Every structure is written in structure tokens, then in C-alpha cells.
Amino acid sequence: MAGVARAFGLDVRRITSQGVFSILALLIGFPVAIILIGSISGGVSYMPGAAIGGVSAMLALLPLNTFTFEQQGQNNWMNGIIPVRRVHQVIGRYLVIGACVLVLALEVAVCVGAGMLFESGMIQFSALAISVLTAIVMYALFESVMIPLCYRFTYQKALLTMMLICIGLGAAIAVVFALLAKLAPASIDALISWAVSSIEAISGAGVIWPALCGVVLASVAMAASLAMSLRIYLAKEF
Q1: Has residue 204 got a pLDDT over 60?
Q2: How would residue 45 be classed by pLDDT, with cut points 50, 70 and 90?
Q3: Alpha carbons 162 and 223: distance in angstroms, whole number
Q4: Residues 108 and 55 sit within 8 Å (Cβ to Cβ)
Q5: At CB < 8 A and 24+ separation, what contacts does 164-172 make?
Q6: What distance in Å separates the CA atoms of residue 189 and residue 2, rounded to the nearest whole number?
Q7: Phi-psi region of 39 (alpha: psi -120 to 50; beta: other; left: phi over 0)
């Protein structure tokens, strides 16, 4: 555990190498701006989306910045000789993601809760929980793909690969729907009906089942990502 703690501390120092104040200003400034705008506008419906999208995008960069700082001046070579095992280095980096998840949950809860107070004067805890879980699952899925890519490639190539993956998935889905619409139009209606009925069933079940599904999905994605990152990093030569 001492090695993991040292690796985690090293990554935190990398993230804050440009100044702790700038990181704190970034983490605090965005939610404050959303809350101020919401207090002026009355907390309209854009606040949950703005909080989830904006805060997630902001925090998504922090773990990835560790790879950037490592690659500057080829400082990543130092990871091969520092007295911390490679396994601990990878686990420490995923702990950074865990810390970002906690910050993400807190900031999204504060922003969405403030929007509810501005709009109706009360907090709907079920809707608040759904917003927080949505942000966490989206964040975990993104990081679970990006971290192994950053271990395998340079940071720039990892971003390009992620972009190509997203484009490829979007194109594949579009082709499948186009073929179904042309060859089996009834299947599209059946698929839409199934999706609507599933959403209604989940909504009727309350927050517990969506929360459970989200937690399981995020956990499986992060576990698979950690295993892949370890396999890539342990085989890498500095």
C-alpha cells in the first residue's frame, strides 16, 4: 500500500505542478459560475446538463494530464527506475480517477441541487441521484477507455484513437439502422417499442435499479480497464 500511496502522491504532484491555486480555481470556479447563472435565471432545466457535461469534461482532463507531464522531455522513462513498482504506479493512477469521481459527484450534486432550489424551492433527491449517477457512469466509461490508450500510445495518439473509435461506433450504428430500415422496417418499430417499454419499466422501479445497473456497468468497465492497463504497462520497455 505504501507504493500505491507514493504513486498516487506523485500523480497528484504532477497534476498540480502548474500551481495548486489554478487547480482549485478550476474545480471551484465552474460550479460557482453555474450556480450564479442559475440564481439569476431561476434555475432552468439546462443546469443538470451543464453540470454533468461541464464538470465531467473538466475533471476528465486531470488524470490524462499525468500522461502529458510524463511525456514532456520523456520524463516517463523515470517511471522505470523510481522505487515504486509498475503495478503500484497503475493502481495509483486509477486512484486519481477515483478521487476525481468523488469530486465529480459532489460538484454535480451541488449544481443540480442548487438548480432545483432556484426553480421550485425543494430538492428532488431521486432526480438528483440520477444526475449524479449519470455523470459518474459517463466519466468512468470515458476514462476506462482513455487510460489504457494513453498507456499504449502517446497522449495525442490516444485522443485520435478515441475519436476514431467514436466515429466508427457512430458509423456502425448508423449503417445497422439504415439496413434494418431498408430490409426489415418492422424491426425498427419493435426496437423502439422495446426501448420505450424498458425506460418506462426502469422509471417505474424507482432509482434503485438504474443505480445498481450504473454501478455495475462502471465497476466492470473500470476493472477491465485496470487489467488492460496493467497488461500494457508491465510489458512496456522504457
Answers
A1: no
A2: low
A3: 19
A4: yes
A5: none
A6: 56
A7: alpha
Residue pair 8/95 in contact by the 8 Å Cβ criterion:
yes
Helical packing angle, 155-183 and 125-152, nearest 10°: 120
**Phi-psi category of residue 236: left, alpha or beta, with phi > 0 → left and psi -120 to 50 → alpha:** beta
DSSP 177: H
Q: How far apart are CA 163 and CA 14, in angstroms?
A: 25
**Mean of the per-residue pLDDT values of the chain:** 78
Residue 91: the pLDDT is 92
pLDDT of residue 128: 82
Task: Compute the C-alpha angle 205/208/210, nearest 5°.
Answer: 80
DSSP H helical segments within the chain, as ranges? 2-15, 20-41, 46-71, 86-120, 125-152, 155-183, 185-204, 208-234
Q: What pTM was computed for the model?
A: 0.79
| CB of 145 closer than 8 Å to CB of 225 | yes
Cell digits of residue 21: 491555486
Q: Which three cell numbers stand for residue 46?
A: 439546462
